[in-house]
Amino acid sequence: MSLVLNEDQLMLQESARAFCREQASVAVLRSMRDIKDPIGYPKALWQSMVELGWAGMAIPEAFCGYEFGYSGLGIVLEETGRTLVPTPLVSTVLLSATAINLAGSHEQKSLLLPAVVAGGSVIAFALEEGSFHDPLMVSLSAVKTADGYVLEGEKKFVLDAASADHLIVVARTAGKPGETAGISLFVLDAKTHGIVVKPLSMVDSRSAANVSFDKVVVSSSALLGNEGAAWRALERTLDIARICLSAEMLGSIQEVFERTVEYLKQRTQFGVQIGAFQALQHRAALMYSEVELCKSLVRKALSELDRGDAAQDIPALASMCKAKLSEVSALISNEGVQMHGGIGMTDEFDLGFFLKRARVAQQTLGDVLFHRDRYASLRGF
Amino acid sequence: MTKTNVAKQGNTNLTDLDSFRADTRVWLEENCPASMRTPAPEDEVVWGGRNAVFKHPDSKIWLDRMAAKGWTCPTWPAEYGGGGLDKAQSLILAEEMQRISARPPLVSFGISMLGPVLLEMATHEQKLEHIPKIVRGEIRWCQGYSEPGAGSDLAGLGTKAILDGDHYVINGSKIWTSYADKADWIFCLVRTDFDVPKHSGISFILFDMQTPGVTTKPIKLISGNSVFCETFFDDVRVPARNVIGRLNDGWTIAKRLLQHERTMISGFGLSSGRNNRAGLTGSLELTAMKYRGDTGKLSDPALRDQIAQFKIDSEAFAFTSQRSAQEAKLSKGPNATSSMLKNYGCELNKRRYELLLQAVGTQALGWESLTADASDFAPEELAVAREWLRSKGNSIEGGTYEVQLNVIAKRVLGLPDMTSMIVKQ
User: Fold this and answer.
1) Are B409 and B287 in a shared domain?
2) What is the CATH number of the domain that holds B44?
3) Cβ contact B309–A265 (<8 Å)
4) pLDDT tens by residue, A63-89
5) Nearest to B418 among A278, A296, A379 (CB)
6) Which of A159, A367, B37, B180 could lock A91 by a disulfide, CB 3.0 to 4.6 Å apart?
7) What is the DSSP string of A4-60?
């Protein structure tokens, strides 16, 4: 299995990088923050990305996708991570489209996926109920009625809920929080009566919201997959999203590392470039080693995903990625600020955006502690 | 790559490779003794040399048969006794040997370090003199690099070689010479010019350890006995023709050779995450559970988290080694990562032993003694203490951790070189 990018992938990387540098730099995120944009991502820019095919890269051709694979999607995410451009990729493409593709009926896929590929649709994924990622602790209830279900409960930290046309809701049709059996997925029109979206203001300036469900009535056709049996599809969805989110984090990590090394070569104190000081050189060399490990893990996991049904060890690979990338993301963002000195603390300089995004990305879909714990269980200890 | 090699690769088409594989399989089947198809215990590893030890009698038969075909050094040219195989063929040989779990017939510094450098830099006559004896395991080599006053600053070495007629007279001493007391010849860095910057006055010279004036003394390490020695040279007379490469150009050769050594050492880390070792070092997590009486889940959450972190790093390191090898194949700069791999591999090995001490507790801290009751500590528990202590040397030998970080900072990241500023001043 190749862990090195091929010609096609290098071309994709080059074009995605050029696009992000020219049209989607950190300035985009800065202006979204400054104008307190309620949507949280630039709509016109997102449409340009959709035209480049970014929304449909991992979606099957049967549903108008491009089947370019997760390695390709990972390359794009790395580049968006380098400029921190906010997009609905995580909510809509990584989470919701994957869940629909894995759990949905042919009819549901035909209805929802082409709209994602074409960019008309943003679908939020309502999973978390507490302040820590814990996909088993689902207590939002879906009670069966004669011709459907009634949903009751609260969801936290739902990405892009404010702009979503649809929501996928992880609900409990049976069992207790902590159990795998009894978890069901529902896809709802975001305007369904009883849904209240309360936007949050997060440190990374991306769009997230708390969403409450007050006696929300849905028909049976809202159910994705079989009632009470969604855990397998949910877990695989989360693993795919964790690996792809790690690719985005890899981009941010590399960007901060490269900017920092560049700064060490430019900044002069005591008559020399500060990069000549061994105290900084050794820390930079250690960071380099960690970044190389991150690259290998992400490449390995993405190419394993691309083996489709033959893919092996995906849960452990996903947890390795998210644990390691979260750890290194903290290291690089902290060292980046420290090595930049005072200028790294100023809002005018971009580095703070990377630090803030790093922490939110670290928590999203499980932090380092969650994933080391999960990895240990998967490896039998 | 030489022209002949390219031509060879071009000619070796798929059918030829298939028949090479078939022939190799048959030959190994007929010639590899059944007893040599098991992992070799440390005392059965064959190092060759004038006083070669063949603890297992079949190991001599196996060595002689492989050496006759040049397959102890499969890719070395046949005119110097090597196997003359191209890369694809040698890969097939390795695969076929692995298939039957055949032991390496011969392990030596001649094969892993000196040979590749001689093939690249020595004269035809020098190759004829030394390479065949390395292939056949007749001469065992040791490395004379570090000195008491020249460790990380290796180029500051002071062992002198003064020309006297057609001989050099060598005076000085070396340290950390692995197996000097068992080696027949030494490849040695000596100072041949005293009036130039330190890197420019070093030569690379070969000589017989039986030459009058050479003495060795084993070094006892914190882990107990070791393979390391101190080596002393007192008016040792060495033919001038034994200099390899140009006079005073020894530093170039020394660096080349160190690259081979680093690649060898980084292998330590690759095996440190795997669970295929004997004894307690086999599986860190299972050992930790066993000593706590745990079933299913390791009861100490802090140790569990640290072991998980260690194992994730080990797996990521293995993927990085794979990626580095793939990049090297596509010739995208193989050496950018060699210092990083050496360092990370050594640190992983050290972390493994620190975690093992935590996993086992005081039972891992016993020391062999004539008066102790043998039932106090099991042999594999005593081994943990020794191996833990020995692992501390991983980040010192072959270029220290700090020196490797300097190399990464300057060569890979392009950060400015403060030491060159100091030297200039």
Assistant:
1) yes
2) 1.10.540.10
3) no
4) 999 988 999 999 999 999 999 999 999
5) A278
6) A159
7) S--HHHHHHHHHHHHHHHHHS-HHHHHHHHHTT-SS-S-HHHHHHHHHTTGGGTTS-
